[in-house]
Amino acid sequence: MQSLWNDTEAATFGTDLLGQRVYTSRLLGRNPALVLHGGGNTSVKVTERDFFGDSVNLCYVKGSGWDLGTIEREGFSPVRLDALIKMSKLATMSDEDMVLQQRAAMTNPNAPAASIEAILHAILPFRFVDHSHANAIAALTCNADGEARVKEVFGSRVIIVPYFMPGFILAKTIADLIVGRDLRAEGIQGMVLLKHGLFTFDDDARKSYELHIEMVTQAEEYLATRSAGFQPSEATISEDLLSLAKLRQAVSKHRGFPQITRLNASPEAVGYASLPNVATFGTRGPLTPDHSIRTKRAPAFISDDIDASVQAFANDYQAYFDRNASGQTKLDTAPRFALWPNHGIVSFGDTLKDANIVADIAESTAATVALGEAVGGWEPLPESDIFAIEYWDLEQAKLRKGPARKVHQGKIAIVTGCAAGIGFAIAESLAEQGAQVVGLDIDKDIPDIMKKIGGIGIVVNLTEDQPVQDAIDFTVRQFGGIDIVVSNAGIFPKNDYLDAMAQTDWDRTIMINLTSHQKLMNKVIPFVKAGIDASIIFVGSRNFKAPGPGASAYSCSKAALTQLCRVAALELAPNKIRVNIVHPDAVFDTKLWTPEALQKSATRYGMTVEEYKTKNLMKVEIKSKDIGNMVSAMASPLFSKVTGAQIPVDGGNDRVI
After folding, report:
1. How many Cβ atoms are within 10 Å of 469's Cβ, its own excluded?
2. pLDDT in tens, 214-263
3. Alpha carbons 375 and 503: distance in angstroms, whole number
4. Is the same domain home to 291 and 246?
5. For residues 315 and 329, is the Cβ–Cβ distance under 8 A?
6. Mean pLDDT, range 579-587, rounded to an integer
7. What is the spatial distance between Cα 379 and Cα 372, in angstroms, rounded to a whole number?
8. Residue 187: phi, psi to the nearest 5?
């Protein structure tokens, strides 16, 4: 481990103490082997003038909800130092009172809530305090001989603290350990909290940070010596995307919501998941107790029977809850990540962000647990201590602060023909309601177009078999499954009467407007059967019921597409998959309808452009977004018992009605 300190970069954060604190906090946060997703905390003690001009001693401590890797000045909470010191001298203090009094002692009420370890930072008699959950410290201390190892590596440079709950109890314990001592005179430069993490401190920002780097490096070197000769498993990597989708389906049912699923099939992940006895040592407990909030106590272990494996995890979690609960409300029984031999490590989350966070933690956990097991045995905290953190209301409150759940959150949608117009509006509406959208289109700009809505675009000729299969496989490999399919791709050929139409125009229209949809169904249905509340929606046209002269190819293709929808609804109903079709008409806010084309058509009908755009029974303009919102609704629980339906969005057409 190397120091990342750079004088030029440090200068950009300012020379004041808080600026230095921001910089070295970010240096810690840059290294995932030290800090992951909100873990760790830092502080600096300063003297400032308050609003009234009086001098006040403050402890600026990392605020709740901020990540060290990206923290700004406003991410630190200014708490009166004397108030924190007084709290440390109390005999007891509830979590609720601690949070309330820390908030009351802040000089800026708009700042975030101070870290639950603010009292601990305050009582350490150094200006800068750095705390991480370093992987190497976990591997060093999660062992029956953890304390002896710490003494062997660090000697008398550190205070060794047995595990206690973070917050007041831990702060009070350490206050009792250091009362009456001169830590500087003793040469104390840090603290190792067994099975928790590392603290370093100094009056200089750089020295405190680099002490952290130095001590973690010492732990790494010790472990490297002890693990000499350890060889990770070289398992054969096997890909089974349909089984991945079924695993996601099983986990989602236990979670109660669809889950975005990330598969780490790297050689390292597959090797770890395939280690002998990993089902035993890999499920003993998390890398650090804080991780249990996002990962639960342990991962699931997946055997050949996926449903049975997920059910076994649920049963084990229920038993774990029953053994440790004392009035708490049980959380869901779904795993947050799973070890899948010969396939890798699979992570689950309500959103892509959540799944990625779990994936990062799972990857870090795998590397550290394997090392810990190799150097004498991985022995994390007892489950009762893990339970106390997992069900600690202060930690659960962090998860409850998230935004309200969206209709399609956790769902994966494929939308074809979505580079513009109706297709883009559909993709946008689904994304706005929380779906992870993959757009397929022949337009070379589709990747950039989908980025606008947070989706992924793939250039695909939908009439070609292998590219379609590749796009479906990519979607499942990337997110774990497919729940919503919107088959929208189509063309509107030039108007020609039957006796004047070129055969190539007919063939091309049928191929794109009908056969490409059939090809998509052939390849995507096996995955949709493993989807969550799955729905397939076709985009038809008013022309299927009210054709016009010169539009034979278009009208016939849409009529046949409607029939394809009806057959699919019949075939997939036993699988609880809904199949419906929407029939738009006169949607003019697309690339097809230029101002010139609109004027030409309006003139042909003897209308103004505005009259032409509202030439339906309700005299309303139909826009692409209207179709997008309708399709999003059709894929939602609102239509949970509707299949085989043909829904017009046309403002009312007398010929159809």
Report:
1. 15
2. 999 999 999 999 987 676 667 788 899 999 999 999 999 999 999 999 99
3. 73
4. yes
5. no
6. 95
7. 8
8. 75, 20
Number of domains in the chain: 4
Domain that includes residue 607, residue range? 591-621
Residues 186 and 299 in one domain: no
- If asked whether residues 425 and 343 sit together in one domain, one would say no
Q: Is residue 236 part of a domain?
A: no
398 pLDDT band, cuts 50/70/90, is low
The 3-state DSSP class for residue 487 equals: strand
pLDDT average, residue stretch 615-622: 94
Mark which of 226, 257, 292 sits at the end of a domain.
226
My answer on whether 562 and 614 are in the same domain is no
Residues 595 and 581 in one domain: no
Residue 495: band (very low, low, confident or very high) from pLDDT cuts 50, 70, 90: confident
Could you read off the pLDDT of 91-136 as tens digits, one per residue?
A: 999 999 999 999 999 999 999 999 999 999 999 999 999 999 999 9
Residue 555 contacts residue 548 (beta carbons within 8 Å): yes
CATH number for 572: 3.40.50.720
pLDDT at 76 over 90: yes
Amino acid at 45: K
Q: Which among 400, 431, 455 is the end of a domain?
A: 400
Handedness of CA 185, 186, 188, 194 (dihedral sign): negative
Strand order in the sheet with 76-80: 76-80, 55-62, 41-49, 128-132, 197-202, 190-193, 158-161
